[in-house]
Write a structure and sequence with these properties.
By secondary structure, the chain is α/β, with parallel strands linked by helices. It has four helices and five strands. The chain has a five-stranded mixed β-sheet, sandwiched between helices.
Length: 158
């Protein structure tokens, strides 16, 4: 009887640990996705079902650096449908690279994006699919090499 009791306890403990690990791995992504979706709701939109990129320019972004990063992104993605990219500007600046284009642009004048736990330094990208954030990248102005490497890896070398 003691042997069965010990076996059942260890089985339940193993099941509990497995469920805990599963939920702890999914929770951060789901939590971030829910919070990001709430942020987007302010602009009467939500995370797209299909693959989508959100480019976030923080209040700390130097305008010339951001302009350069935007040009690199646009140059690398000439074939990317404009409907798959949204720009979130929380620095109240304008960028000539975006003026004559058909991208969706959200002006976060209240800087609400900073309330989310994304640790955005200057230039951030979120990749979403099926209404969830699936990847995040964060670049500072001193990381141009890493940014170009990311663009080549994510979108292929030009």
């Amino acid at each position: 009887m003691k042997l069965k009791e010990v076996s059942l306890n260890s089985i339940w403990t193993s099941v509990f640990i497995g469920v805990f690990i599963l939920f702890s791995q999914c929770t951060d992504i789901d939590f971030d996705s829910r919070n990001f979706n709430r942020f987007l709701n302010q602009f009467d939109t939500s995370i797209a079902e299909e693959e989508h990129y959100y480019i976030i320019l923080s209040k700390y972004t130097c305008q010339s650096c951001a302009h350069h990063y935007l040009e690199l992104f646009l140059d690398k993605n000439v074939l990317l449908p404009r409907s798959t990219t949204t720009f979130i500007l929380s620095n109240n600046k304008t960028y000539s690279a975006l003026e004559d284009d058909t991208f969706a642009i959200l002006h976060d004048r209240e800087r609400s994006i900073e309330q989310l736990s994304f640790n955005i330094t200057e230039f951030a990208l979120l990749k979403t699919s099926k209404k969830r954030i699936i990847q995040r990248w964060n670049f500072s102005s001193s990381e141009e090499g890493g940014y170009i490497e990311f663009l080549d890896k994510e979108f292929g070398e030009k």
